Amino acid sequence: MKFTPTAILPTIAVLLFAAGCSSTTASISPANYDKMNCPELNNAVGDTATDISRTAIARGKVANTSVPTWLLGGERVKTAIANRETARIERLQQQEQVIVATRNQRCPSSP
């Protein structure tokens, strides 16, 4: 296999695209949860669950990406991106727990 820039660029572009896609959503400040009504809290739970799913899918795509052995540092980059996505999922799960606790406290009809 030849070492050519045209072979490296698509691989790097895919990894950078996968890394950037997962960080496009903004989170809501926990201080704002107290000001939200029940339907807004329900929407926040749904949005957070969607973000968790989207991030998990991106992490899976990165983890399953086949990096050529001749691409130096490719596996390290892939692992770093997957670890960053895992940390993001953990943060989103904590955020979701806070929203659910606030919703359960303020909205008695919520499960």
Quick structural gist:
The protein has 111 residues and is an all-alpha fold. It contains 3 helices and no strands. Helix 1 runs antiparallel to helix 2 (38-63), helix 1 runs parallel beside helix 3 (74-106) and helix 2 (38-63) runs antiparallel to helix 3.
Helicity level: 55-70%
- Our count of helices gives 3
Oligomer: single chain
Low-confidence stretches: 22-26
Query: Which structural class best describes the helix and strand composition?
Result: mainly alpha
Look at the structure and give the mean pLDDT. Answer: 80
Total beta-strand segments: 0
For the CA atoms, what is the radius of gyration? Answer: 19 Å
Strand content: under 5%
| Shape annotation | elongated
What do these coordinates show?
The protein has three helices and no strands. It has helices spanning 5-21, 38-63, 74-106. 68% of the residues lie in helices and 0% in strands. Helix 1 runs antiparallel to helix 2 and helix 1 (5-21) runs parallel beside helix 3. It is mainly α. Residues 22-26 have low confidence and may be disordered. The protein starts with a helix and ends in a 5-residue tail after the last helix.
Q: What descriptors fit this protein?
A:
3 helices; mainly alpha; elongated; 111 residues
Write the SSE topology:
Layout (H helix, E strand, L loop, with lengths): L4 H17 L16 H26 L10 H33 L5
Helix pairs in contact: 1-2, 1-3, 2-3
